[in-house]
Design goal:
The chain is of the alpha+beta class and 166 residues long. The longest helix is centred in the last third of the chain and has 15 residues. It is built from three helices and nine strands, in the order βαββββαββαββ. The termini are close together. The chain is globular. A hairpin with a 6-residue loop joins strand 6 and strand 7. Strands 1, 2, 3, 4, 5, 6, 7, 8 and 9 form a nine-stranded antiparallel beta sheet that branches. It has a single domain, classed as Pnp Oxidase, Chain A.
């Protein structure tokens, strides 16, 4: 994956500084560190009637996509089937990373094995790939289109928006 383009997000009324003021733009590596270190994430989807739905999930960043799994009949999976646009955030509100992207249900055996290996390494679990049986637990990969990050200690000088090639 190529490095996403970094800019300041449009936040009128918040006193956001220019890109060369405060901390400046955060490097993408800053966001990757937090995506890899976060233990819990919030996933937001949209119900068919337009109401939001947010749930905590375990997940893993593989350098290109954010991965998680969920039971097939879950509300989040039903929402993703209707509308694959999602938001994923790290749990740390002091230095959040927010991903906006498109979710895809993945069934390729190699991808499932790669995801279960990431989960087992990150969470010190011993799941077998059979845990990801597509009839029971769907595996989802979110490809980001935009990401946002900021440091609480420099609220006006650190906000950064990253845009990915689509």
């Amino acid at each position: 994956m190529s490095e996403p383009a970094a800019t300041r997000p449009h936040m009128p009324g918040y006193g956001i500084l220019g890109t060369d003021e405060g901390s400046g733009l955060l490097p993408w590596s800053w966001a990757v560190e937090r995506l890899e270190a976060a233990r819990n994430f919030w996933l937001s989807t949209v119900r068919p009637d337009g109401r939001p739905h947010a749930m905590p999930v375990w997940g893993a960043w593989d350098g290109e996509r954010f991965w998680f799994s969920s039971s097939v009949p879950s509300r989040k999976l039903r929402n993703i089937r209707e509308n694959p646009q999602v938001v994923v955030t790290t749990e740390a509100a002091e230095e959040p990373v927010v991903l906006e992207g498109t979710a895809e249900i993945v069934t390729d055996a190699r991808d499932l094995q790669r995801f279960i290996d990431l989960v087992n390494a990150k969470y010190a679990t011993g799941y077998g790939v059979d845990f990801l049986d597509p009839a029971v637990n769907a595996t989802v990969a979110v490809r980001p289109q935009r990401a946002f990050g900021l440091r609480q200690g420099d609220f006006t000088g650190s906000p950064t928006r990253w845009s990915f090639e689509t």
